[in-house]
Amino acid sequence: MKSKTILYLVILVALGLIAYFVTTDRGEKTASYKVGDAKMMDVDSAKVDRLEIKTKDGNLVLVKTNNMWTITEPFKYKTVSTLVENAVSNLKNMKIESLVSSNPEKQESFGFSSADKAEITVFVEGKEAGKFLLGNPAATNSSYVKKADSDNIYIADNIDRFTFVKPTIDDWRDRVILSIPKESIKSVEIKTAGESYTAVKDEAGTFRIGPDSTGKTFGDMLSIFNKVEAMGFKDTTLSENTAFTDVVKIDWGNVTEMRFLKLETTPVKYLMQIPGDNQIYEFEDGYVNNIIKKRSEFIGG
């Protein structure tokens, strides 16, 4: 009888220990803790008209006007709308998959240090609709996320950190400056320190510099104008008295003027300005050398 009593006591103690480990909050949770289909925010992507992304590099503000996205901070410039639409689509499809940690001491390891985290704020029809913090990538097309006022860190599916956080803020800018159809070009005037000349298209469709017809090299140069892309951007201004080293004027029904300023750097670079556009663009020497050539290089061949 006594042995049975001892056995019952052992069983009761064992059951008590099991209950303790099952019900007690042990601190950090694991990915096995499912939170269902809860969302960090619930937005109608068609109505999102402002997106703010704050990182260690500053605050990026993207605003939608007339179905086109533009950057309004930290500078005013056009962006590639599909980049922003991809981010907005991520927000719509984001799904909280699991809780991975509630331990505040673990936040940095999931990408929530001041140097790594991104604060995402979403606006719908001009009003703030939600905000959350974005940490490191968790796996393919998933990332760690959390609320700013909570220690709970989740894995969220269908959200890619790199859709929101680019290597630099400049990577949000549209690098395409000009898009001039080759077939529309009527003449190209080139002015350099050494010479000035104009290539004009005749009735037969041949470009001539004076009496001389141009060749393949000139045709290759015209193709560049189909898509002129900047290497970089300079958020500065050039004075009205700037002595540009080279000027290219393209008549394609409209007249577009590209003003180049050669910088004696290593490697050599050029700044470029288009009248009416306040942005200063940066180009590599090799790219500009495909546009600005001596008259003799464009004749024949």
What this model shows, in words?
This protein is of the alpha+beta class. It folds into 2 domains: about 35-170, no CATH class; about 175-300. Helix content is about 20%, strand content about 35%. It is built from 6 helices and 21 strands. The strands form 3 sheets. A 10-stranded antiparallel sheet has the order 1-6-10-9-8-7-2-3-4-5. The radius of gyration is 30 Å and the shape is elongated.
In short:
With 301 residues, the chain is α+β, with helices and mostly antiparallel strands.
- Rg is 30 Å
According to DSSP, the number of beta strands is: 21
The first-to-last residue Cα distance is 113 Å
User: What portion of residues belong to β-strands?
Assistant: 35-45%
What average pLDDT do the residues reach? Answer: 88
Helix content: 10-25%
Q: In which order are the strands of the major sheet placed? A: 1-6-10-9-8-7-2-3-4-5
Number of helices: 6
Supply the number of structural domains: 2
How does the overall form come out from the CA principal axes? elongated
Question: Structural class, from helix and strand content?
Answer: alpha+beta
Show unreliable segments.
15-34
| Order of SSEs | HEEEEEHEEEEEHEEEEEHEEEEEEHH
- Main sheet summary: 10 strands, antiparallel
Topology:
Blueprint: H1 2-23, E1 33-34, E2 48-55, E3 58-65, E4 68-73, E5 77-78, H2 81-93, E6 95-101, E7 118-124, E8 127-139, E9 142-146, E10 153-157, H3 161-164, E11 176-178, E12 187-191, E13 196-201, E14 207-209, E15 212-213, H4 216-224, E16 228-229, E17 232-234, E18 246-251, E19 255-263, E20 269-273, E21 280-284, H5 285-289, H6 295-298
Antiparallel strand pairs: 1-6, 2-3, 2-7, 3-4, 4-5, 6-10, 7-8, 8-9, 9-10, 11-16, 12-13, 12-18, 13-14, 14-15, 17-21, 18-19, 19-20, 20-21
